[in-house]
Amino acid sequence: MTAFSILDLVPVREGGSVGEALADATELARAAERVGCKRFWVAEHHAMAGIAGGATAVVLAHVGNVTSTIRIGSGGIMLPNHTPFQIAEQFGTLDALFPGRVDLGLGRAPGAGPELQRALRKDLHRAAEMFPQDVVELIALMAGETTIHPTPGLGAKPEFWMLGSSLFGAQLAARLGLPYAFASHFAPDHLDAALELYRRQFQPSPMLERPHVMAAMNLFVAETEDEAEFIASSQLQAFVSLRTGQPGELPPPIEGYRATLPASFQAMLAHIGQASAIGTAETARDSIMAFIQRTGADEIIFGGSTFDPAARIRSLELTMPLLAGADAVTSAWGA
């Protein structure tokens, strides 16, 4: 049966505040739990005015306290920004607070210029080269296989995930026997090749016996196609701003936004949007089912920031009831 989850960037809206973004995240998490989503993940970003999830473990503690059954986790922690020992302590704390509910998704992209490197006091490019060793060390710290034992952290059992948007993450996930989540919602180029490589090279581990894939999609659903495109336009604007080196807070939606763009930007958005479901609940369901059939994904995680937080919750409420048959599609793919 295909599982469905939520990826949140904790977006800060134009004219809004970080406090409001955090409150919106908790309401989204509650809604995700209510409609039957399996996980609620928060992504680590730094020094970006429009994203408030930088202190990822703190945000997850906040979300965990207002939910009771949904899994909470990182999608992901960029390990080069930290030491394995720090993350063992942070996620060991979360595991103690919310036992059996914590996911620890790990990525290697430093995603930082010289200013952030100085602020973090790290050579992030060198740290990225150490990523495979740091993942192994982090797992060993929690398993008690190191000379120093983190407290909290020793004996913690978060569900480890490898994140990626290239073949590197797929290879490492396969070698370590970890579930693999692909960032197809904004970097779809290597999706099919990465999933094929991961499944072909997968080596069973104490954490996972067989390959397990999550793929990300953008989800914007409303009562009409035009309304769905309208609410999606805030994130589309954010993509354009990011690609042109002018990231900022999440802007309000614009009617007919795509048509206002040069052809090159329309093509860029169409390319990024390969893994998107925008429209009515019925059209979105068809897009999601086709994506599951293409990828054979065991899980789908939905991104998609909206200027009006209620519009994202409404997307879930409209879509989730129509996805009950996704298990039949997945079973057919695997037959």
From TrEMBL:
GO CC terms of this entry:
cytosol
Q: Where is the signal peptide?
A: none
Q: Please give the Pfam families that the UniProt record associates with this protein.
A: Bac_luciferase (PF00296)
Q: What is the superkingdom listed in this entry's lineage?
A: Bacteria
Looking at the record, the residues that make up the Luciferase-like domain are: 4-298
Q: Which GO terms describe its molecular function?
A: oxidoreductase activity, acting on paired donors, with incorporation or reduction of molecular oxygen
Family designation: To bacterial alkanal monooxygenase alpha and beta chains.
Q: Which NCBIfam families match?
A: oxido_grp_1
Q: What is this protein called?
A: Luciferase-like monooxygenase
Give the organism the record lists: Erythrobacter mangrovi
